[in-house]
Amino acid sequence: MTCAFCAIAADPAPVAMVHEDADLMVFLDHMPIREGHCLIVPRAHYPYFDDLPETLAARVMALSQRLARSLKAIHGVERVAFFATGTDLPHAHIHVVPLHEKGDLTSARYMAEPPVFAGIAVQPREQLAPVADRLRQELETTA
Ligand SMILES: [Zn+2]
All domains of the chain, ordered by start, with CATH? Predict the structure, then answer.
């Protein structure tokens, strides 16, 4: 069976892409906790974040910081969450989520009702595209 993120690396058409380079992809989560919820995904398949070569992990973290600044600028939030759970899909990825409220992201809440706890269900690429466009533009200002 093909890994879902390896399939996206080969053909990104199904996702709302925010950033792509030779090693990394950033696209919007199709079950966002909050608008702007992104995934940073290495193109190469490594099962878990701790499997990444250090240089690649450092690039992921640097991009996370840029994304956080962009999400703060767009959403006017004080905090942006970063997390890698390794529980849903064994291809290393980081979630980057603007926190509108302190309780937006707690492990108990995430485990209990991941897809809909902000009242947002699965969103198709077309619905996410304007959000991705705005974030891509903001991210480019930090390059
Ligand atoms: Zn994979």
Answer: 4-137 (3.30.428.10)
